[in-house]
Every structure is written in C-alpha cells, then in structure tokens.
Amino acid sequence: AGEFRILGIPPGNHVVVVRHLGSAPITVSLDLAVGDTVIREFDLAPAVPAPPALDTVSVRARLLLSAVTLGKMAGYESRRAQHIGRSIDSTTLQRENYRDLGDILRAHLPIHLLVTEGGSYVGSTRGMVSDLNGNSQPAGDSGDRQRGAGPACYAQVYVDGIRLYTPAQGAKLFDVNSIPVTGLKAVEYFPGAAETPPEYGGTGASCGTLLIWTR
Fold first, then answer.
1. C-alpha to C-alpha distances, 215 to 1, 67, 106, 160, 183, nearest whole angstrom
2. Dihedral through CA 189, CA 192, CA 194, CA 196, nearest 10?
3. Kind of pairing, strands 119-124 and 113-116?
4. Of 191, 210, 211, 194, which Cα lies nearest the Cα of 202?
5. 115: which strand partners?
6. Distance (Å, whole) CA 183 – CA 181
7. 100 and 128 in contact (C-beta within 8 Å)?
8. Are 172 and 165 in contact (CB under 8 A)?
C-alpha cells in the first residue's frame, strides 16, 4: 500500500529521503521530540528528464541439480562429477538389462565376483585378514556355505543408502543377481575403506563397498 512505519527513532533532527525509480527524490528535515508520532505523506513526481531505459538483461545459467531435485541420487551425482569411485550409469544398465547384474559388474567395474550355485557375490580371496581371535573372514550363513561359499573378502552392500550386507560371522551374503537390472538407476563401487565415502565407511568397508541405486 506504499505505507511505511519506522519505530525507535531517537529524538533530534533527522533527514528523510524518499526515492523511487523513475521519480524525482524528495528530501525533508524532521525535528522529533520524545514521544512524538509524525505522519507525513509524500507525492512523488516523474523525474525530469526521464531516466534512460535500462538495457535488456540476458541471463545464462547452467542447471544445478540440487539434493531436492535429485533426492537419493544427489550423493551419486556429486561423486560422479568429482570422479570418486567407479560407477555404472542408467544408460549402460538399461542397454544391458538382458544380463544378470553380476555379469554387468564384472564387465564394467574392477571387481572380483565369487560365483556359487546359489548366487554371485562381490568379493575376493585376495587380501583376506583374520580377526583378533584368528578366525578367517565370514563365509555367509549356513545356507551360503552349503551352496559353496567359502571364506573371502566380501564387499559390503548398500541398496538406496541402506546397508543390506556387512562382513560379519553368520551374515547372509548378498547375491547381486537377486536385483532385477531393469529396476536399477546406477551402481557404484569403491575397492577399499580408504576409497569408500565417509558416510558408508567403517570397519565393514575394508573389503570394498558396493552401492546400488534403484529407480
């Protein structure tokens, strides 16, 4: 409505300047005593001569995909832009969606795939370590062992940011072929704890980290 109220002005003489683009400014001097309330109206007249027209502003910008836009994929896009880790994008996954995920991972990522009659698991028999009690690294649960899974350096697995497998005695191994490729958006792989992003790190990352992102 063009109305302004200014409070807390100390007593004394004050200069009020009213400006508006395209209008001539108005300057008045006001003497204020303690407790004064002053009401003034200002009628602005067009500036003479008229101000020059502003040049057309042309704005060029690139689209920044924010966390709000990308949702759960924000971290993936950020790491991909910074070339952190290795990844398979949605284009590749959809082009090869007739294959099992394990075959796609082996073709595009520097991983070792341990295959049994019951599934395919990301891991390696190289770099195996023992725990403080001298036990070798886990070989899955009893069902995994019956299907031929042996002690190995198995990578931890996250799906949409939720950890579904971490190396631990008795933990059921994660079969990468259990997820249909047609429902995937991206896959990331980090070969060890040092390469794994901090939010997915910890002791479970010592054998690598596999991040799977669904649509």
1. 49, 16, 22, 9, 6
2. 30
3. antiparallel
4. 194
5. 120
6. 5
7. no
8. yes
Do residues 184 and 213 touch, judged by C-beta distance below 8 A?
Answer: yes
Two tokens at 2?
A: 């063009």
91 burial type by CB count under 10 A (0-12 exposed, 13-18 middle, 19+ buried)? exposed
Write the single-letter amino acid at 193: A
Asked if residue 159 lies in contact with residue 212, where contact means CB atoms within 8 angstroms, the answer is: yes
Question: Rounded to an integer, what distance in angstroms lies between the CA atom of residue 30 and that of residue 25?
Answer: 16
Q: What is the largest CA-CA distance in the chain?
A: 95
User: Is the C-alpha dihedral spanning 163, 167, 172, 173 positive or negative?
Assistant: positive
**Torsion over CA: 127, 132, 136, 138 (sign):** negative
215: nearest Cα among 77, 90, 74, 88: 90
- The token pair at 72 is 């759960």
Token couple for 213 = 């992102």
**SS3 label, residue 143:** helix
Write out pLDDT tens, residues 145-202: 888 888 888 999 999 999 999 988 888 899 999 999 999 999 999 999 999 999 998 8
| Single pTM value for the model | 0.65
Cα separation, 170 vs 167, whole angstroms:
9
